[in-house]
Fold each of these.
Amino acid sequence: MATALLTVLLLTAATLACATEIVGRVVAVADGDTITVLDAEKKQHKIRLAGIDAPEKYQPFAHRSSENLSALTFKKQATLDCYKTDPLKRKVCRVSVGGKDVALAQVQAGLAWHYKQYEKEQKPSERAAYASAEAEARASGIGLWKQERPVAPWDFRRHGVK
């Protein structure tokens, strides 16, 4: 029992030690789920928004998704809760601007998918909010959900469609 408790405490401490908070100004928007933030020390951070996947460059609604993310973030102060680095060396972060969850706003606008492959990395309340937002956007037929059969970005990337 003591060993199990110690293991849980060490894992929790390791997870918390990996989490980083960054506060900075959004200086670039690459696409519907990637931004660049300049911190107070003038260091740039390439950020992948946690919990979502937006349309790829050659997919319908890619430009609208990027425009919406830009309207939400560009030249604004953002607070980032970063907890891992992806294979492209981007920090994966929860991003808020003015107290608003930017990734959730993308899903609510129908301009990103809730990235269910990584939902276990989300807090239960986030997971529920993102799933609900996607369901509502689908039911309302807004954004990319206007399409008859939208192709998820992970399927688009897997099949190399352009």
Amino acid sequence: MKNIFKTHINLPSNVKLIIKKNHLFVNGPQGSICLDLSFLNQQNLSFTAKKIKYSSFFRLFQKALIGVGLNFVVRLTFFGVGFRIESIENEFMKLNLGFSHLVYIKIPKHVKIFTTKKTSLILECIDDHLLNEFSSKICSYKKPDVYKGKGILYKNQSIILKEGKKK
């Protein structure tokens, strides 16, 4: 594991850091993220527990810098006959996934959604964890079938198809 106490972070010029009480606010052109600093005041932790907490905070801080500066992007593709995006409204997204009904998914507040075609979806957000959680929720409605390859996939995800029954 890399020693995080010896690494240096180059702060972009368009990102500002503000500390108020036990919170670190990272402000940038795309938005702002608040990180909790309350774990620094805990005295009863062992050295390895403190090192793990600092390491995880360091990774969250790095992702916050990238998120407020650029944005994180996830691309999803729909494979299968009739699998498509019906419409994207203010708070909800309607998907046709081969069921007898349409699937309605509530869009989180900070996630931006774009479609280029009816079978591709582009998700943008400043928070990496929120974006990955939402995209996995969408993918869980139609997991890829290992025999036909139908379902919701990430852009560069490939599936090794199994061979069906032989006579």
Amino acid sequence: MHHSLKFLVTILFVLFFTACTFGTKFVELPEPDLFVLEETTYEEIVAKYGKPNIESSVVKNKIPVKMVNYGCSTGSAAGKSVKPWVVAERILWLYFLENNNKLIGHSFSSSYEVDATNFDVNMTEKIEKGRTTRNQVIELMGPRYGEFMYPLTTDQEKRMLLYSYYETSGKVGRWEIIQRYLHVTYDANGIVTNVDLTESKN
């Protein structure tokens, strides 16, 4: 799964010089409860958001997976992004099983002020393995989360919440990119089994 997350970075500069391609359909990031794992279909997503920016296939745990991306950017216009000189952009990734087009994962990031996903890393210290529940994680970290199930996870009995944030700032030729991920794995009872926070800047 980390491979697919890194793949997000490759489209940052492609999106930078584009407008919100899907107009009112992608003006704001959708709420996670609009995506139901094992129920929402590829066809339903395309009907709602239109043709994806990017569509590709990968194999996860020997199972073919379809990845689709929606994204938009309005640059660093005043009042749009979380802070000055930060590129305002939204990125949504959706993952489907190739054999039935059913959703198995979703993730998104935004540096727009209205729906920013720049979660508070200090709150992660309150997440306890073996004790904290999935719902408590969402209460702590906020409602802008992604979620994955097998084969995007390594264990068929576990699922994963994902909080992600990408920030591109600076000027042409002098860009700085900040990436922040929080992966919280939980079991069939909704109890957290693992917490992984990663940050990078370049």
Amino acid sequence: MIRTLIDTALVLTFGAAALPAHAATLNNGDTLTIATGITTDSNDDPLPIGAVSGSWFAIDGNGDGAIAGGETESLSQGTTGLVIGQPTTPGANSCCDYPGATNAITAPTSFLGTIGSFYTKTGVTGSTTSGLDMSGWSFVYNGLPANPGVELGTGAWTPTNAAAAGMAASGYTNGIGVFSWDGVYGHSYTLDYTATVPTGNPSGFGGYKWAFHLTGTVPTAAVPEATTYGMMLAGLGLVGFAARRRYRL
């Protein structure tokens, strides 16, 4: 009887904490690694299937609604990758680094011959069902003020050759990334996201459409928060109470 009570309490205590390993929901502190991208050099042809691998971003420079090989730039991991729920500071750029710059999510990347970096003003959260909230996604380069930076939180669009580019073919909504993951830590994920820089943005790129394809793994579950430990202690306390009551009877 005591063993049954203990087993029941452990299931109740750890069940909620164990679910994220099997459900495709990310918890604060989980990390998405950024697999290094390989892109084509062609400026003219639409992006052919298989021409890009790993993580990359693109700007629809000619305004045709598609992603061409020459419009893509590869991405690689910064110091941490994308940590769920954690905002980051702007990183390196051609002009100067910002105070506290960590280049956390991605390493500095080339952008029209200058160096820039991605950061997020608000922590990314979500799941495969709701998508990932990317509304704080931003870019900075060439000394552009970090606030607002190149704002990339709205203006979703669907590239006409999204599937050929290895992106999700549909499902793009403002500020939300299309997220695919089987919920098992250690397995791979893909995150596709599109945005349009607001008109009047001080970068001078107002109206330009951007697309992102991030891939990598979700290595391990985040360390349980204090509330989880509280649940564990409470569960074990109930077991102890039940055991004492049984012996008294």
